Amino acid sequence: MWDEVLDCEGLLCPLPVLKARKRLMGMDAGQVLCVRATDAMAGIDLPHFCGQAGHSYLQAQEDGSVTLHLIRVGG
Question: Over 90: is that where the pLDDT of 75 sits?
């Protein structure tokens, strides 16, 4: 379902976005990154970042107290 997982549990924004940006730079176009985050602001900041950076924000899934944010690398 995804190619890589980035654990950002317990981190407050903007750290999940900054860490996702760095990880996405090392991935190939079309791959999917799963960002595990507990900060509710990640649900606003990650889609906004994706729109500006040319990536596709696919969806958010709840997994207990963690939200899984799925991002497809743009190319």
Answer: no
pLDDT score of 3: 98
Is 8 a catalytic site residue?
no
Q: Are β-strands 32-37 and 56-63 bridged in parallel, bridged antiparallel, or unpaired?
A: unpaired
For 4-72, which CATH class? alpha beta
CA distance 1 to 12: 26
Q: Where are the domains of the chain?
A: 4-72
Distances from the Cα of 69 to the Cαs of 12, 22, 33, 55, 64, in angstroms? 15, 16, 8, 13, 13
DSSP H helical segments within the chain, as ranges?
15-25, 42-53
